[in-house]
Write a structure and sequence with these properties.
By secondary structure, the chain is mainly alpha-helical. The protein has helices spanning 9-37, 44-70, 75-82, 87-113, 121-154, 156-161. Helix 1 runs antiparallel to helix 2 (44-70), helix 2 packs antiparallel against helix 4 (87-113) and helix 3 (75-82) runs antiparallel to helix 4 (87-113).
Length: 164
């Protein structure tokens, strides 16, 4: 078994930028959860305003994360460039994230355009819960991809040593 190769400072910077994006998105996800959990009956306009404010924060965070991941020097771009075997998964993750972004933009537009008490808060909670669950699943798949890419890059002979 060979010793692991140290990641370059550029790779470390890409990882740190990716982590900062994920942290910002997670904070926004927690904000939307708090807004969704607050009492709605009898105070629908205030509840809706709180949800919209938190949703704007989540929209901004996910948009920034999406745009940063599309940059040529991003962590996922590095994986697509250096790990041909993982390119399709990286592209698929980005496409799925784009779909989640569209769902966020859509529900935000619907809530913004509607009358203050024109939305069923149960439905809004359910729809946003689905999006939050999908974002968490996306994060897990992305973490798996990143781990696999860097495991392949820095510990290539471990997989052959482990074979019977």
């Amino acid at each position: 078994m060979c010793e692991p190769i140290d990641a370059s400072s550029a790779q470390t910077a890409r990882h740190d930028a990716h982590r900062a994006d994920q942290d910002r998105t997670l904070a926004a996800m927690l904000d939307i959860e708090a807004a969704l959990e607050s009492a709605a009956p009898g105070r629908e306009p205030a509840w809706r305003a709180d949800v919209l404010a938190a949703l704007a924060h989540l929209d901004e965070a996910t948009d920034e994360e999406y745009l940063n991941a599309e940059k040529p020097d991003s962590l996922l771009a590095d994986i697509k460039r250096t790990q041909p075997r993982l390119r399709t998964r990286a592209r698929s993750l980005r496409a799925h994230y784009g779909q989640l972004r569209q769902a966020l933009v859509s529900i935000r537009a619907q809530l913004t355009e509607a009358e203050p008490d024109g939305h069923d808060y149960h439905d809004v909670r359910q729809r946003l819960a689905w999006i939050l669950t999908a974002l968490r699943h996306q994060r897990a798949l992305e973490s798996d991809l990143i781990y696999e890419a860097y495991f392949d890059a820095f510990y290539t002979d471990l997989s052959t040593d482990a074979l019977p």
